[in-house]
Design brief:
The protein has 397 residues and is α/β, with parallel strands linked by helices. It has 17 helices and nine strands. It binds iron/sulfur cluster (SF4). Iron/sulfur cluster (SF4) binds at residues 171, 176, 178-179, 182, 347-348, 351-353.
């Protein structure tokens, strides 16, 4: 159990440009009077601590860049910032926004990494990989999953339910229940434990035309209090902070007069604000590899080596040599092994949106899952993709 205390460094020149504010979840309650703002009465009462970052988008860029990358990119952006090695990796990034962070024992914190586990539909390597990322970043890992069953179970249940209706039971881009039920709903269920949530996610603009249009910071309406749902993010955050200050002070009268739409809320029933944040939305793929400590050319070399092992395997070469070459291709690779296997995207091992190359890779490495999906195609009478069976795709059709 840890507590984060955040102390703002002495004021620096105001950054120019459009100002954006980001605030992370409630970190805990402290009694440190040094955090009271000027003019306030210093007492030993406890008060909540939040991370709040303010500045122009340009000034915050190193922080955004660092959220997932433990400082590598910020060092590149601003080579004059050095000497961070003493700090915990967790909050190296705060340095770039002129904040300091001190961890203390005693109070729970709520910064965590969240993995939505899709069970048998995942790559076999994913659970271990997720644990490794969380541990390397010194972050607690929370794993959530759909209580009614994993994605394979959900597909089977849907097949039974729709039997005889002629409706397709596989998920598709038009009926993406896999993402909605297995990922988004499970994450939201967990997020409902908190009053303020910032869900930092790795979506990037160049991944698809749809993602290009996404706002990098948006209100997550489904789990946000109604009066905040349709406000711009900055305004929602400012309103949320102002209402909570009044609730902290027990000033229900002020809430009623200044924010009448919040009268149903109280100190025990606070309005929730959830923000979805894509900190690396504008990154190129090469930026991602750089932040992971690798590069596209390193990956390409590993892929060639791994492919050599597969060809040797296919031609009946010695198992010892096959395994040795595979190990060499993967040794020291920091990202998910599926990329070395040749995948262009990391998703479920067999994703309904994946290209043929990635599906063949997934099937080669998880033949039992592929065989089960082919069996479901046969007994359910519907192809894995609209008009294309998995069998045909795997056979190059
Ligand atoms: S990776 Fe593909 S199959 Fe898996 S949840 Fe996402 S869209 Fe659905």
């Amino acid at each position: 159990m840890k507590q984060l205390m955040i102390e703002k460094k002495p004021k620096q020149a105001q950054p120019t440009g459009k100002t954006r504010r980001f605030s992370a979840t409630l970190m805990g309650y402290i009694t440190a009077d040094m955090l009271w703002e000027g003019g306030q009465t210093k007492t030993n009462e406890t008060r909540p601590v939040y991370i709040t970052l303010a500045g122009s988008a340009a000034a915050l860029r190193p922080f955004l860049a660092n959220f997932h990358s433990k400082g590598t990119r910020a060092t590149r952006v601003d080579p004059n910032r050095s000497g961070w090695s003493k700090d915990s990796d967790w909050f190296r990034c705060l340095k770039s926004a002129n904040y300091e962070a001190i961890w203390q024992r005693g109070v729970d914190n709520h910064i965590f990494s969240l993995h939505m586990d899709l069970g048998r539909a995942e790559w076999n390597e994913t659970p271990l990989h997720v644990e490794k990322i969380a541990s390397n970043n010194n972050l607690p890992l929370v794993v959530v999953s759909r209580p009614q069953g994993d994605l394979v179970q959900e597909i089977e249940d849907r097949m039974e339910r729709l039997r005889g209706t002629g409706k397709p039971f596989w998920p598709s881009s038009a009926a993406r229940y896999c993402t909605a039920d297995q990922k988004r709903s499970q994450a939201d269920k967990y997020y409902r434990k908190f009053d303020l949530i910032i869900s930092a996610e790795g979506n990037r603009a160049e991944e698809s035309p749809k993602r290009r249009k996404d706002d990098p910071v948006s209100v997550r309406k489904q789990i946000t209090a109604k009066p905040l749902q349709n406000l711009p993010v900055d305004e929602a955050l400012e309103t949320w902070i102002a209402v909570n200050r009044l609730l902290d002070a027990g000033d229900d009268t002020a809430v009623a007069s200044q924010y009448p739409q919040f009268t149903r809320y109280s100190a025990d029933n606070r309005p929730r604000l959830a923000i979805t944040w894509y900190p690396i939305h504008d990154w190129k793929l090469e930026d991602v590899w750089y932040a992971c400590g690798t590069s596209a050319s390193d990956l390409a070399m590993r892929q060639v080596m791994y492919q050599t092992a597969l060809e040797l395997e296919d031609s009946g070469g010695p198992e010892f040599d096959v395994e040795r070459i595979k190990r060499k291709a993967l040794d020291g690779w920091p990202a998910h092994p599926a990329y070395v296997y040749g995948n262009e995207r990391l998703s479920c091992a067999l994703c309904i949106l994946a290209n043929d190359n990635d599906l063949r890779n997934g099937a080669r490495h998880q033949p039992d899952l592929a065989a089960h999906y082919i069996h479901l195609e046969e007994v359910g009478g519907a192809t894995f993709k609209n008009g294309r069976s998995l069998t045909d795709i795997l056979n190059g059709g």
